[in-house]
Design a protein that fits this description.
Order of helices and strands: HEHEEHEEEEEHEHEH
Radius of gyration: 23 Å
Number of helices: 6
Shape: globular
Largest sheet: 7 strands, mixed
Strand content: 15-25%
Strand order of the largest sheet: 2-1-3-8-7-9-10
CATH architecture of the largest domain: 2-Layer Sandwich
């Protein structure tokens, strides 16, 4: 009887030790995952994350459904990392992001997000965003001589850039999609794939990526993939076009 009691006691102690070790391992793993995520996005608990929203080009003060979903993804991310969130409206936020990470959501087309337009002009001079028109290159991105077209509802693209302005201590993330659904897709992709990007990118401090969003009519914002890392050319001014010589 004594041996049975001893064996039961040893089994209970062993189970308790195993449970504690598993709990500590899981806690350490979660802590490492959170640390890696915070490092990639440049956030620290207790700080503020600024989310700059765009609006519909033809309806100021209103936002498309997928742009709202992109905002929600940014807010959830900030909350996961223990940050407060400050919502700002495009066109009314004229200041440095300073000590706060900034997510600037939406493209510059027709004044939808004028802050995105300013970021592109100041820090991403190698990126050309073609205007909305009836031409084949409507809303296309042109970077380093390569064109990324917008094939509505079938294959669209979104520019995702990270950089730190000279006046700030925290980075800016520009989410510049050809449509609202691509803005949403970019935020979903960043939350899902930040660890893969951390391993893949040459630098986590500054980068510019073009994501491709496939089969939108079937999968919505869930099928974004990395189309090209254009960091080498996006931050470099485009060569000036020389006028043709007079004949």
């Amino acid at each position: 009887m004594g041996d049975v009691t001893l064996n039961v006691g040893i089994g209970l102690v062993t189970s308790m030790i195993s449970a504690v070790l598993v709990w500590l391992w899981q806690r350490g793993r979660n802590a490492r995952a959170l640390y890696g995520k915070a490092r990639f996005f440049g956030m620290r608990p207790g700080e503020t994350c600024i989310v700059v929203m765009n609006h519909k080009w033809d309806r100021p003060r209103t936002a498309a459904h997928h742009d709202v979903q992109a905002m929600v993804e940014a807010v959830v991310l900030a909350r996961e990392l223990g940050c407060e969130v400050s919502m700002r409206v495009s066109g009314e936020f004229r200041d440095s992001n300073g000590p706060s990470v900034e997510f600037c959501i939406g493209g510059p087309e027709n004044g939808s997000n004028v802050r995105t337009a300013g970021h592109l002009e100041q820090y991403l001079p190698g990126v050309d965003v073609r205007p909305f028109s009836d031409r084949d290159d409507s809303m296309a991105f042109v970077v380093g001589g390569e064109t990324f077209p917008c094939e509505r509802r079938r294959r669209e693209h979104v520019l995702v850039a990270k950089f730190r302005p000279a006046s700030a201590t925290r980075p800016v993330f520009v989410i510049c999609g050809q449509t609202a659904v691509t803005n949403h897709a970019a935020m979903v992709y960043l939350r899902r794939s930040h660890r893969e990007l951390s391993r893949r990118l040459a630098s986590m401090e500054r980068f510019c990526l073009v994501l491709r969003v496939e089969s939108i009519s079937t999968y919505g914002a869930q099928e974004a993939v990395l189309a090209r890392d254009v960091s080498a050319t996006a931050f470099t001014p485009r060569p000036a076009v020389r006028p043709a010589p007079d004949v």
